[in-house]
Amino acid sequence: MSKCIILANGKAPKKDVIKFLRRLGYSTLICADGGANSAERMNLIPDFIIGDLDSVKAAVLKKFSDVSEIIKLPRQNDTDVEKCLKFVIRNKYTDAGLTGVTGDRLDHTFCNLGIVIKFYYSIRISIIAEHSVLQPYTGYNELQTVPGETISIYGLDPDTKILSKGLKYKLNNIPLPFGQKESTSNIAVADRISLNVNNGIIFVIRDYNVMKKNGLLYTA
Questions:
Q1: CA 208 to centroid of chain Cα atoms
Q2: Residue 70 class from Cβ within 10 Å (0-12 exposed, 13-18 middle, 19+ buried)?
Q3: How confident is the model at residue 220 (pLDDT cuts 50, 70, 90)?
Q4: In this predicted model, what pLDDT tens digit does every residue of 115-140 receive, in sequence order?
Q5: β-strand 150-154 against 183-187: which pairing, if any?
Q6: Which of 99, 89, 150, 154 lies closest to 119, judged by CA?
Q7: pTM of the model
Q8: What CATH number is given for 3-130 in this structure?
């Protein structure tokens, strides 16, 4: 199973996040264009730098030219993060941890949330941003949790129904259509919850530090 970190050109994570993901087996670091600037500031060496290379600083590109594989893809019909994801899918990676994908521009943040859905059936993607971890789910899933843990659930489509067990505020086969209804700050009441999602994909957002402390990152 091959796992990678994709570091984009948004707000950079703390270096500890990258180190922790590497300890979990996310051994390949891929920078989406200007994400290489963040890597350089954190004294990290990317395995790959991929994108149209319009955001990475020339000095940074030169610094990494002998130690990183640089792949310039000038096409404009996909984003640099998408270019990275298409590359790792072609190369049989199974998991991608996306970070640096949120920041000052809401359009970029919104686009990157959509990318999670776009590539859902090709690779397992999670987003780590600030103190949060976002993971998408469909079908039946059991998640290890900590009683009292805050768990927020967001649906996207009015036809997507969610049935839950182990949450304080139960979801009884109901939709959570975006802009109409959501389950923000729900609470786990057991050490395991189940989510049965029919006809669509949902986002589950949890606290990074709680998951890290309790060994829950990337477990289902």
A1: 12
A2: middle
A3: very low
A4: 999 999 999 999 999 899 999 999 99
A5: antiparallel
A6: 89
A7: 0.94
A8: 3.40.50.10240
CB 186 within 8 A of CB 150: yes
Token pair for 110: 């919104």
- Secondary structure (3-state) at 63: helix
Distance CA 140, CA 160 (A): 13
First and final C-alpha spacing in the chain = 16
pLDDT at position 1 over 80: no
Residues 174-179, mean pLDDT to the nearest whole number: 91
- On whether the CB atoms of residues 112 and 127 are closer than 8 A, the answer is yes
Would the pLDDT of 212 be above 50?
yes
Identity of the residue numbered 150:
T
| Count of positions (residues) in the chain | 220
Place of tokens 């949890």: 206
Query: Going by C-beta distance under 8 Å and a sequence separation of 6 or more, which residues neighbour residue 38?
Result: 7, 9, 12, 31, 100
What Å distances lie between residue 118 and 31, 64, 196, CA to CA?
Answer: 20, 31, 21
Domain with CATH 3.40.50.10240 in the chain: 3-130, 135-213
Other CB atoms within 10 Å distance of the CB of residue 95? 19
CATH annotation of 135-213:
3.40.50.10240
Express each pLDDT in 186-196 by its tens digit.
999 999 999 99
